[in-house]
Amino acid sequence: MTDLASSAAQLDAADPLAAYRDRFVGADQPLVYFDGNSLGRPLAVTGPRLARFVEEEWGGRLIRGWDEGWLELPLTLGDRLGRAVLGAVAGQTTVGDSTTVLLYKLMRAAVAARPGRTEIVLDRDNFPTDRYVADGVARECGLTLRWIDVDLEAGVTADLLAAAVGPDTALVVLSHVAYRSAWLADLPELTRIVHDAGALVLWDLCHSAGSVPIGLDAAGVDLAVGCTYKYLNGGPGAPAFAYVAARHQDRLAQPIQGWMGAVDTFLMGPTYAPAPGIRRFLSGTPPIVGMLAMQDMLDLVEEAGIDAVRAKSVALTSYAVDVADELLAPVGVVLASPRDPALRGGHVTLNHPLMREVTAALWERDVIPDYRDPHGLRIGLSPLSTSFVEVRRGLELVRETLERMTT
């Protein structure tokens, strides 16, 4: 373990992004946080930002705040997300609602835009919400779900998708990074395959936004949804974001018609007429307080650069795989994520029959991973708040806990 400790320290010393860790609340504590892909740590500047908002904007400006920036925040913040994280020009991204609600909006709008087509295509290991929403939309619209069976340690490949789509396909729903295995889908190639079939594609970016460069515009993506509380550190339940390519905006009818998406919000007219552009995908009053923390993380991502963030992510997960090979493979742990970093997102899953019990025991020792069936301990390594020493220490404790349970 001495070599592992020294190599971790050397990697931290050489890491050009190491200093960013000091900006996060709790990063100076001994707790090992392996769950940054589920809930990111808060930034130290966020507490003062929230306090200023209460005292100055909410408390000081009161309802005038809507005219002084709040009404536009879903769009201005969406533009920042597009620029810093998504590879999307302005006017195509909005923030608000939950991931589930936005998935419904865009799925329902997409299938309505492909009349006569009868299938929604998705894989059986897509995130549960994606599958559940697709099932509801299919039943509501009289459509059929066409399932892609995937390797749980990988994800949707070009061959699997090409075999599933055809003239009946209205919409394909895919995750950029698989929530279980961390499989990094070939977004441009899979998007091309969908378009060749005449269908629309909706990408779930929840496990990639903020850790992997995405390039929505360059790939010609139609629609995308993602959350902001994982690698974007927006806080528990922070609102999600939706991307609608400019070429589709005025042709898609979103199904939850609310006053914030109307052409004249304060006309209060007798009938609904949608606003032009991305604003029409808003529904109700924007959750302004929930949008505050993410702005601090976007400052950091823009400062560091998403390509540098991805390089740090690859280095962290590669180091975790190396440590797992040395420490955990000898006690029966199997890597359940792609070994090639080009095929892997920002987390690593390690399988062993006792991982459910190991995860519970680790939480008692202030080592916080996730558990995912079957038998998977999932370590999410948020690039700007995680150190190599933290990775090494956490995996040493996984080994120690397993040894205690098997001897």
Keywords:
Aspartate Aminotransferase, domain 1; 4-stranded antiparallel beta sheet; alpha/beta; 407 residues; 7-stranded mixed beta sheet; Aspartate Aminotransferase, domain 2
Describe this structure in words.
With about 400 residues, the chain is of the alpha/beta class. It has two domains: about 140 residues, Alpha-Beta Complex (Aspartate Aminotransferase, domain 1); about 230 residues, Aspartate Aminotransferase, domain 2, CATH 3.40.640.10. The chain is built from 14 helices and 13 strands. Strands 2-8-7-6-5-3-4 form a seven-stranded mixed β-sheet, with helices on both faces. It has a four-stranded antiparallel β-sheet with strand order 9-10-13-12. Strand 3, helix 6 and strand 4 form a beta-alpha-beta unit. The longest helix has 23 residues. The chain is globular.
Helix content percent band: 40-55%
Total individual domains: 2
Number of strands: 13
**Gross CATH architecture of the largest domain:** 3-Layer(aba) Sandwich
Low-confidence stretches: none
What series of H and E elements makes up the topology?
HEHHHEHEHEHEHEHEEHHHEEHEEEH
Structural class: alpha/beta
Order of strands side by side in the largest beta sheet?
A: 2-8-7-6-5-3-4
Classify the fold: give the CATH topology of the largest domain. Aspartate Aminotransferase, domain 2
Note the overall shape. globular
Q: What Rg is obtained from the alpha carbons, in whole angstroms?
A: 22 Å
Terminal Cα separation, in Å?
A: 20 Å
